[in-house]
Structure formats: C-alpha cells, structure tokens
Amino acid sequence: MSVVVLYTTEYCPYCVAARRLLDAKGVGYEDRKLEGRYDLRAEMEARSGRTSVPQIFIGDRHVGGFDDMAALERRGELDPLLEASGAI
Hints:
By secondary structure, the protein is of the alpha+beta class. 45% of the residues lie in helices and 19% in strands. The protein has one domain (4-83): Glutaredoxin (3-Layer(aba) Sandwich). A 4-stranded mixed beta sheet has the order 2-1-3-4, with helices on both faces. The protein starts with a strand and ends with a helix. Belongs to the glutaredoxin family.
C-alpha cells in the first residue's frame, strides 16, 4: 500500500491540482479513482467522514482535501509530513 493515498475523480479540478502538486514534488501515490466504484466511495467516506473529493491521506493522517494540502504547503509543513511518513 502506498504511503500517500488520494481518493479522486478524473476531472475534478481540485483532484487534478492535488496530483500536480504531488507530481511536482516527485511523490508517488495511489490514486483511487471513484468513478463507478461505490465500494471505494464508501471506503473514502468511512475513512475521512467526508463525501467530497479529493480526500488525501499521508500515512495514517487524513490531510483533507486539496485546499488543506495546499495550506500545509504554504506553511512549510507538507514536506516534513511527507518525509516523516517515508513518502520522500
């Protein structure tokens, strides 16, 4: 299982932005696309307590959506979290 897990849909602009940010950092991630996958949507909702996408997990930590991950990046907290989890 990947250290970073994204629950996304293909064309959601926030999902695209989350993938781009992680790609720019060279971080590998598991992209669990929800289209037609009610089992994955139920899994995401159970893990996060949310119904919107993306939902982002780094290690065991639920980061939230793209705005939450971007806020971590602006505060300089994203890289240390990724490093601590072994993602980079």
